[in-house]
Design goal:
Number of strands: 11
Helix content: 25-40%
Radius of gyration: 17 Å
Structural class: alpha+beta
Order of helices and strands: EEEHHEEEEEHHEEHHHE
Shape: globular
């Protein structure tokens, strides 16, 4: 298994409020995640870094998991701790008030592959048959409207409040977290912020990710390149997890 990550502030933004980590615990399990900060001033930057630092430290001390319930318990416990930490930090400083971050990640251990999601960063899965599909559900106003039949997918593309989040880490005293197991046969995962999926067509992203002639590290760099070529309007972050050749995680 190979994991590669990249982040860039883009062309128009003055700072990079995205953060990412590829963390390993004491038994070699992997937890890769992307956080896209939100908040005025440097609030988003602070929030995403707090989240990444929290999970880097917590996961590095983890001694492994035996079953799904244990993974779920650990993730929800650490999400609650991290949410409280960001929320309380925001309350202490006026300039950071209301700050928060998305969090999308993949945790891979001997009992399975788990997708974790808060907000509108995304996890995609790709397979040998050429399929490329979104595995997370965006926590946005637009997605809620689509799910309730108030808006079509085509209408959502140009909806004025497209980026309004309904859930984020650290903004409120409580947070919702999606945790799903994905043990179907996959070649790998893409985790990315909306600086990529919000400006580059999905079929373009899929073509790059599925290009097995290119090394995973080159594919990640190509994803950044096309996001910048699309205007570089936002911070861009992507992690590619190539599962091929790692017998520990073959399903």
């Amino acid at each position: 298994m190979k994991c590669y990550g990249i982040t860039d502030r883009g062309i128009l933004r003055k700072t990079n409020q995205d953060s990412y980590v590829i963390a390993y615990n004491e038994v070699g399990d992997v937890f890769a995640m992307v956080c896209d900060g939100i908040g005025g001033g440097n609030g988003g930057d602070v929030a995403s870094h707090l989240a990444i630092r929290h999970f880097s430290e917590a996961f590095s001390m983890n001694q492994g998991f035996e079953h799904f319930e244990e993974v779920q318990y650990w993730v929800r416990k650490e999400i609650t701790k991290c949410n409280r930490r960001i929320y309380e930090t925001g309350k202490l400083t006026e300039a950071l008030k209301g700050m928060g971050t998305t969090l999308s990640g993949v945790l891979i251990c001997k009992c399975g592959r788990f997708i974790i999601n808060i907000g509108d960063s995304r996890v995609y899965g790709y397979s040998q048959d050429g399929s490329f599909k979104q595995l997370t559900t965006d926590h946005t106003l637009v997605q809620d409207m689509i799910m309730h039949g108030e808006l079509s997918v085509d209408e959502a593309e140009n909806y004025p409040k497209k980026n309004v989040l309904t859930n984020a880490l650290g903004v409120w005293s409580t947070v919702k977290c999606d945790i799903e197991m994905h043990n179907e046969p996959l070649l790998g995962f893409l985790i990315c912020s909306d600086g990529l999926h919000g400006y580059v067509e999905e079929d373009v992203i899929a073509k790059i990710v599925l290009d097995e002639e290119s090394a995973p590290c080159l594919r990640v760099r190509k994803l950044l390149q096309v996001a910048l070529e699309a205007g570089g309007y936002d911070n861009v972050t992507a992690i590619l997890i190539d599962l091929e050749g790692d017998s520990r995680y073959e399903q």
